[in-house]
Amino acid sequence: MEERKFTIEELKAVLRACAGEEESVDLDGQILDTEFEDLGYDSLALLEAGGRIEREYGITLGDEALNDAPTPRALLEIVNTRLLGVDAA
């Protein structure tokens, strides 16, 4: 079975679809280690993005996982860890 990876491009698409994009923020730039708050995404936007990721990728993140992910890199790591768990099942 091919290993599924959640990419930064997929995350950007989810963020844009769920909460739009702050005009002053360049999501196409180097954002991996930029805090979500600095990118213009508050906790409500992240909850919506998390719900969409859960539905589209068949995983469970929960509020705690989203709170533990202050940056896109951290969220990618959490999502990809969960995807590995789904693939292993």
TrEMBL record:
Carrier domain segment(s): 5-83
SMART domains, per the entry: PKS_PP
Swiss-Prot/TrEMBL keywords: Phosphopantetheine, Phosphoprotein
GO molecular function list: phosphopantetheine binding
Chain segments annotated as coiled-coil in the UniProt record: none
InterPro entries: ACP-like_sf, PKS_PP-bd, PP-bd_ACP, Ppantetheine_attach_site
Domain of life: Bacteria
Gene3D superfamilies: ACP-like (1.10.1200.10)
Pfam family, any one: PP-binding
Identification of the protein by name: Act minimal PKS acyl carrier protein
Source organism of this protein record: Labedaea rhizosphaerae
